[in-house]
Amino acid sequence: MGKIYQVIVLGLKGEKKTIDVANSETDFNNTTVVAFKEKITEKFPELKGQNFKLMYTDEQLQDDETFSKYEIQTGSIIVLILRLPGGSAL
């Protein structure tokens, strides 16, 4: 059995869930943020249809980027943040 590459997602209520991302380092590094968001909605079904963003270190992850761009490694912690409607720039 091969290694499973995983990350930990810190949820809205402070809960931590481990998400299986890929079975190889290459696939892990090439995982896009949008594909990862789909995996997150499987573990956090309450997010289905919600507008949420992900933070890693001090950066907001952009949907079209890959894990390798942000240097995300197996075991990294990604923070989930729910976007709320409303508000405006002054």
UniProtKB/TrEMBL annotation:
Query: For the Ubiquitin-like domain, which residue ranges apply?
Result: 32-87
Q: Which Gene3D superfamilies does the protein's record reference?
A: Phosphatidylinositol 3-kinase Catalytic Subunit, Chain A, domain 1
Query: What InterPro entries has UniProt attached to this entry?
Result: Ubiquitin-like_dom, Ubiquitin-like_domsf
Q: Which SUPFAM superfamilies match?
A: Ubiquitin-like (SSF54236)
Organism's domain of life? Answer: Eukaryota
Which Pfam families would you find in this protein's record? ubiquitin
Residues annotated as signal peptide:
none
User: Protein name, please?
Assistant: Zgc:194655
